[in-house]
């Protein structure tokens, strides 16, 4: 049975004066993961699967858009809206934000344990650097490939040309010359998944004997073939999205289940510090894994609660 832990930042800070008690498993902890992660015991987590915010819609480090007085925004952010200014500073902000979180993750993970971290493709290098700088080994860059429900966000420059201080004939000439040319935004059909690993203790065999981590289940398969770093799974359809439809980007359960089967065993503990609408918890629960979920947005906590309850019926 799962529960929801509602704790204020103040109550969490009070706990820091005690020995780390560890967060209860099979439980949603509502609040900022930067606070809650501090309470997970050292070397307690067997697998991390998570989808952090991408900082693509002007969110600051407190998940706010529009300044400190703005309400908390989404846990996961979609792609750039058409016409939004490209800002390389977003990647640097993501790297800085994830660096502190990665430090807590590697502390609470068992030696050899894996962290699977979703990333928008153009920011995947920043995500990987944040993990690597905290001591993770970057084992691979996996690709979640999908073909349906994707948008082509590139747009022409005609509306800018129309506003130029030029004669109409010159505008028409420039527009004709630039026919078919659009902004460099290819139709997105994949997301990156950073496959990071906490360094092992000793050999693969020695680490496995002590921690039961560090190796993958080569029999886990999406299509009957050996596991690949390109995972073809369509986005969650309307039937699966259901109550999760209020979340911008719920990950398909088939994909999360595959990742959990690949890199963990029954009875182990899966952590998602950005739980969103609860997909990681639902997948882990169905595969007989314990799980710990942290989510800052109360709306998403309610969605996750309902999804978990429905999955147990």
Short description:
The protein contains 11 helices and 9 strands. The protein has one domain (3-151, 187-311): Vaccinia Virus protein VP39 (Rossmann fold), CATH 3.40.50.
Protein described:
This protein has 313 residues and is an alpha/beta fold. It has one domain: Vaccinia Virus protein VP39 (Rossmann fold), CATH 3.40.50. Helices cover 32% and strands 18% of the residues. It has eleven helices and nine strands. It has a nine-stranded mixed sheet, sandwiched between helices. Helix 3 packs parallel to helix 4 (124-133). The protein starts with a strand and ends with a helix. The model is unreliable at 6-21, 56-61 and 65-84 (pLDDT under 50).
Q: Which CATH C-level class is it?
A: Alpha Beta
Structural class: alpha/beta
Query: In CATH terms, what is the architecture?
Result: 3-Layer(aba) Sandwich
Number of strands: 9
CATH topology: Rossmann fold
| Biggest sheet statistics | 9 strands, mixed
Distance between the termini: 12 Å
Helix content: 25-40%
Globally, the shape reads elongated
- Structure annotation, total helices: 11
CATH superfamily: Vaccinia Virus protein VP39
Integer-rounded radius of gyration: 21 Å
Strand order of the largest sheet: 1-2-9-8-3-4-6-5-7
Mean of residue pLDDT?
Answer: 84
Q: What's the number of domains?
A: 1
Instruction: State which percent range the strand residues make up.
Output: 15-25%
Instruction: List the secondary-structure elements in sequence, H or E.
Output: EHEHEHEHEHHEHEHHEHEH
Low-confidence parts:
6-21, 56-61, 65-84
